[in-house]
Amino acid sequence: MADGGGATDWQKELTRAAISNNINFSMSGGTENSSYAASIGLDDQEGILRNSNLKRYSVV
């Protein structure tokens, strides 16, 4: 007999184990008279709730 979803584990259905990736690259250098520095990054996170992701880019 169907219970109309009464035995559904809604917490398990709505959440997940989240994965996070953080990637950064930077370089710097120069000469006696000048210098330079540059950095780029990516932060990619899954939220524990489904469809709650964050993706952030940075450039300096």
Q: Termini, distance in Å?
A: 61 Å
What structural class should be given to the helix and strand makeup? mainly beta
User: What is the number of helical segments per DSSP (H or I, 4+ residues)?
Assistant: 1
Radius of gyration over alpha carbons? 22 Å
What's the topology here?
Elements: H1 10-14, E1 20-30, E2 35-45, E3 54-59
Antiparallel strand pairs: 1-2, 2-3
Kindly describe this structure.
This protein is mainly beta and 60 residues long. The protein is 8% helix and 47% strand. It is built from one helix and three strands; from the N terminus they run αβββ. It has a three-stranded antiparallel sheet, with no helix packed on it. A hairpin with an 8-residue loop joins strand 2 and strand 3. It is rod-shaped, with a radius of gyration of 22 Å.
Which descriptors would you attach to this protein?
3-stranded antiparallel β-sheet; single chain; 60 residues; mainly beta
